[in-house]
Amino acid sequence: MRCPSCGNPESRVVDSRLGREGAEIRRRRECLECSRRFTTRERIDEVMPKVVKKDARREDYDRAKLVTSLQKACQKRPVSADELERLVDRLEKRLQELADREVASQRIGDWVMVELVRLDALAAARFASVFRNFENADDYADFFDSLARGES
pLDDT confidence of 47, banded at 50, 70, 90? Predict the structure, then answer.
């Protein structure tokens, strides 16, 4: 593993731990050249289905893209990064269990909405404003009315 500080390819593992419910191994490493410590993560690279967009384009599933959109929705909200990681982990597990080669982005967005409503209603509204193309205040009012009725 190349040191992020000096670029030396030689390092030693100082500590290893299971992370994210056993789906990841976190390794604490020390560079043999500059002695700087850094963390690496290993996870199984699972085959995810293609995402079918509204305009029928197909894209590879991109965890980073989903995490980024969730971070934007949860910005300045009391939702931790760990909660978001667990949300995405649950979503990916669900995608794996589907065993479909393709899944509609609408379906993924609906799953995300259900999960986000449980975490933070305002973050869910922010996500919904992009996901459902809100155009005015009435769209937000309808969203919060549906939450009050127990829908999402």
Answer: confident
